[in-house]
Amino acid sequence: MFVPGDSERKLAKASSIGADVIILDLEDAVAPEAKEMARETTRSWLEEQRANTDATEGTQLWVRINPLDTTQWQYDIESVLAGKPDGIMVPKTADPEQLRRLITVLYEMEPRNGIAPGSTRLLPLVSETPQSANCIADYGRADTEVPRLAGLTWGAEDLSAAIGASRKRDDRGVWTDLFRMVRAQVLLASHAAGVAAIDTLHADFRDEEGLRKVARESYQDGFSGMMAIHPAQVPIINEAFSPSDEELAEARAIVDLFAENPGVGALQLDGRMIDQPHLDQARKLLASVR
């Protein structure tokens, strides 16, 4: 859930939203003239939360900094790291190599702020320019492994502006070919790298039925989570990404069936064949709710 880093009013409500991750935004949600105030407000809020651990128990606190091709991001890091954020969201990331400069800075600054070196995680937005969209697959390659990587996510707004696209979805409300391709690459690269795949936001926060549909489809497609821009979206997304009782019951039945038949590669369950991939998926599903 994104929260503007310069809004004390919205930050005051952030801990009760129910999101798994609160992302304090220093980029798009903050006007250029308010950047410095946003850094100070964000740092102070983080320090308050760290002093009162019960306030955000079970919720991770992240910060979205400004892009790495600007001068703003260094001021962001220098200011907010004192608040010990769990992670940094990096917008408009060009490629894995660009993240290495940030990683170097974090290693230098973490000990100065009482943070264990290497513990601040990274979530890059990997689709916001044509260059970055062409490099999504690199995050899933072993030879370009990125330290600290917690997941990958994507966005459509900046990319559509960069290429001059006048639409992102077709008349049925389905992503057009370009954005479907980007979304699929993020999903594949995330799983190849063994990190979380985070789907993009649903921009119309008043469209609860539309959000419920796309969030459930995102869960079914294999995404780990989804971004939100309004508190009302959080419970809908949480519900969509929670396995149903029927799904859990089937997963337990699959695991139990293979346990009862050790050494057997394929079995029948309710009239259909199941094999090792079904068992692996069932185990992952059950592990996700423990």
TrEMBL record:
Occurrences of domain HpcH/HpaI aldolase/citrate lyase (ranges): 1-231
Gene3D superfamilies: Phosphoenolpyruvate-binding domains
Keyword Cell cycle among UniProt keywords: no
Signal peptide annotation: none
Keyword Lyase: yes
InterPro entries the record matches: Aldolase/citrate-lyase_domain, Citrate_lyase_beta/mcl1/mcl2, Pyrv/PenolPyrv_kinase-like_dom, Pyrv_kinase-like_dom_sf
GO terms, molecular function: lyase activity
Cofactors named for this entry: Mg(2+)
Residue runs in coiled coils: none
Keywords of the record: Lyase, Magnesium, Metal-binding
Protein family membership: Belongs to the HpcH/HpaI aldolase family.
Full protein name: CoA ester lyase
Organism expressing this protein natively: Aurantiacibacter sediminis
